[in-house]
């Protein structure tokens, strides 16, 4: 879950732990606030550029300084979505963007928590 998960999500997780449905060690809090926080600016810029380019049908390049600027916003993922919408007039899909991040991020760009999570899932 993102670090900014809502209270309803946190309450559900606590109930599942109490009922033995999941173990506390299997809950991963990702990012300072949000999932996207875990990736470097250059990877976010590249992934967003490719996502927008694919939606528009022509090459678009988002500059790293644009990502640096919006990283300070209260809701980083919303700001990424706003850039996407302003260029495509389409809705931003976080799952689709995550696929672009997965395609363009190298192992050194991936937070150790993700690596532990994927190892746990694959075992």
Please name the defining characteristics of this protein.
123 residues, mainly alpha, 6 helices, 58% helix
Architecture overview:
- The protein is mainly α and 123 residues long.
- The protein is built from 6 helices and no strands.
- The protein has helices at residues 7-18, 41-56, 64-71, 76-88, 94-104, 112-122.
- The model has no long low-confidence stretch (mean pLDDT 85).
What does the secondary structure layout of this molecule look like, with pairings?
Layout: H1 7-18, H2 41-56, H3 64-71, H4 76-88, H5 94-104, H6 112-122
Brief overview:
This protein is mainly alpha-helical.
CA radius of gyration? 16 Å
Shape: globular
Round the mean pLDDT to the nearest integer and report it. Answer: 85
Helices, by number, come to 6
What share of the residues does DSSP label as strand, in percent?
Answer: under 5%
- The H-and-E topology, N to C, reads as HHHHHH
Instruction: Flag low-confidence runs.
Output: none
Oligomer: single chain
Per DSSP E runs of 2 or more residues, the count of β-strands stands at 0
- Helical content band: 55-70%
- Major β-sheet annotation: none
Classification by helices and strands: mainly alpha
Distance between the termini: 20 Å
């Amino acid at each position: 879950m993102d670090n900014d998960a809502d209270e309803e999500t946190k309450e559900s997780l606590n109930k599942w732990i109490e009922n033995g449905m999941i173990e506390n060690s299997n809950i991963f809090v990702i990012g300072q606030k949000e999932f996207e926080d875990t990736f470097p600016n250059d990877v976010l810029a590249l992934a967003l550029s490719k996502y927008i380019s694919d939606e528009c049908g022509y090459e678009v390049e988002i500059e790293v300084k644009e990502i640096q600027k919006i990283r300070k916003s209260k809701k980083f993922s919303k700001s990424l979505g706003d850039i996407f919408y302003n260029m495509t007039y389409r809705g931003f899909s976080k799952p689709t963007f995550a696929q672009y991040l997965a395609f363009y991020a190298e192992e050194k760009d991936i937070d150790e928590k993700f690596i532990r999570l994927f190892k746990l899932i694959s075992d």
